Amino acid sequence: MRVRKRLFAALMVAPLALVGCTSDSNGGNSSSDSTKAASAGSGGSGTYGYNFAVVTHGAAGDTFWDVVKKGSEQAGKDEGVKVKYQSDGDPAKQSQLIDAAVNQKVDGIVVSMANPDALKASIEKAVAADIPVITINSGQDKSAEFGALAHVGQDETIAGEGAGEKLKEAGVTHLMCVIQEAGNVGLEQRCAGAKSTLGGKVDNVQVQNSDPAGAQATIKAKLQQDTSIDGVLTLGPVIGSAAIKALSDAGSDAKIATFDLNADVTKAIADGKMLFAVDQQQYVQGYLPIVMLTLYKANLNTIGGGHPVLTGPGFVTKDNAAKVQDLAKAGTR
C-alpha cells in the first residue's frame, strides 16, 4: 500500500510517446525496435507488431479471468501488438503452455503464478531464452527470484488485512474464510491476513470454484453446524454469489464480504446484501503488463523499480457500488 501511489504515478507515463533507442554492442534495442518506437509517437494506436503470450491459471468462462483477458486484448489493440491469451487451472498444463510460447519465440510472456514452484522451470526457461516475463495476480514473492521483470497485482496479505479490519468494524468475531482453489498461495495469504486483523476466530473452508452449487451446500452446512459464525469472507465473485444464497438457505444473519467483482457482486453490495468487495482491478492486471512489455521491447523501460506494481486493494462498498456496477456489467471491472 505504501508504494502504490508512487508506482501508479510512474505508470501514468506508459501510454505516452516513446523515444527510439540506438543499437549497441551490449544488447541494446535493434534499429527495427527503434523504428517501431518512433512510429508510434503520435499516439492513438501503436504499430509495434510484437507477439505476446498471456498464460493464466484461470478457468475458461470464469468471470474474473474474462476481465483479465479483456484488459490484455484491449492493450494489444491500443499498442498495436498481438496478444494470445490462454489459461489452464492445472499447473502442469499451464507450464506446458509457457513452454509452447517459448518454443514459438514470442516477444514476451505474461503469467499468473498460483502455484509458483510448478512453473519455475518453465519461467526460467523463458528468461534464459531472453524472453521478458511479467508475472501477474499471484506469486509476487517468487517473481523476481524466477527472473521476471516485474509483478503486477495486489499484495494479498495486505488485502486480507484490510478485509479483516473492515469485518471487525462490522462486529464480526467468528469468520468463515472460503478458499476456492486448493494450493493457491495467494488465497491462503488472504485468509491469513484477515485472521491477523480480525482478532477473532477464523475457520478456513475449502470449496471448488468450478462447482458453485457444491460450494453453496458446503457453506450452508457449515453455517447450520456452527451458529456462532457471524461472518463469511469469500475470495472470488463466483463463490461470493453462492455464499449469499447459502446464508439465505441457512437462515443465517452472518455478514458477508468477498474479494473481486462481477455484476452480481456489485448489485448485492448496492442492495445491501453484501458489506463490501476487495477490488484488485483485474482489468488493469491484464492491460498494464502488455504496455510494460511493449515499453521494454521498444525502449528498454522497466516499471516498478524492483517493487510490485500494485493494482489493489481498493474497496467497493454501498457508497460507491452504483458507480462501478455498470462497468462490471460491461465486463471491465
Q: Quickly name the level 1 CATH class of the largest domain.
A: Alpha Beta
Assign a percent range to the helix content. Answer: 40-55%
Overall, the morphology is elongated
**What is the average per-residue confidence, as pLDDT, rounded to a whole number?**
87
What's the alpha carbon Rg, rounded to whole Å? 21 Å
Could you walk me through the main structural features you see in this protein, from its secondary elements to its overall organization?
The chain is α/β, with parallel strands linked by helices. It has two domains: 4-155 and 281-312, Rossmann fold (3-Layer(aba) Sandwich), CATH 3.40.50.2300; 156-279, Rossmann fold (3-Layer(aba) Sandwich), CATH 3.40.50. The protein is 47% helix and 17% strand. The chain has 13 helices and twelve strands. The protein has helices at residues 4-11, 31-39, 63-79, 91-103, 116-128, 140-143, 156-169, 185-198, 212-225, 237-250, 263-270, 282-299, 321-329, and strands at 51-56, 82-87, 108-112, 133-136, 150-154, 174-179, 201-206, 231-234, 255-259, 277-279, 309-312, 314-316. The protein has a six-stranded parallel sheet, sandwiched between helices. A six-stranded mixed sheet has the order 7-6-8-9-10-12, with helices on both faces. Helix 9 crosses helix 10 (237-250). It is elongated and about 55 Å long. It starts with a helix and ends with a helix.
Provide a quick synopsis of the model:
By secondary structure, the chain is of the alpha/beta class. Helices cover 47% and strands 17% of the residues. The protein folds into two domains: 4-155 and 281-312, Rossmann fold (3-Layer(aba) Sandwich), CATH 3.40.50.2300; 156-279, Response regulator (Rossmann fold, 3-Layer(aba) Sandwich), CATH 3.40.50.
